[in-house]
Amino acid sequence: MSKRKSSRPLASRGPDAAPPLAKPLRIIGGKMRGRSILYSGDPRTRPMKDRLREAVFDVLATAVVGKHVIDLFAGTGALSLEALSRGAVRATLIERHFPTARLIEQNVAQLEIGDRVRVHAGDAFLWPRQQRDWDDFVQPPWLVLCSPPYAFYTDRTADMVALISGLCRRAPAESEFVVEADQRFDFALLADLGQWDVREYAPAVLGFHRIRPPA
User: In terms of residue numbers, what domain contains 139?
Assistant: First the structure.
């Protein structure tokens, strides 16, 4: 498992910091670059900073193209919408906060991409067990985006590892996984899945993993 520190650190926020004021979100690359994304400013939703979002897609590069995005803790949906803008073909977004899930649907309608997006208003930890028609997920390969509240990595460590591991073992070959955590999470807990490219963008830590074809 490789671990690299980014040369572009991000400003950190202490646990007692006041939530930021809502700011307009925009897609930062691809065909929909510059398009606005509605954001409620609800403190339960933590939009990924633009610089970190850009870092994710700089690393993925063309690996986004042709993928089925599975966004486990979708929040604003900005990550999935960014992926669709950059060449992903469809997306499944899971968000347990119903008002936020409805806002994602509004963004999807506004961007006129409803034929490529499915929003599931429910718990990401339960979603794999509730999913009945896995035939819809056989192809194309996935781009799994996992950007939960950081507290889940300490309060629900076993659940997080089980969720990521279960989807890795089910994913088609050439699928890509992007896991955002902070320094409290030990990516060695996922080492049995294979190599992870772990990069630090303080306070965030990003882990990238590709599902290799069978030997």
Answer: 46-210
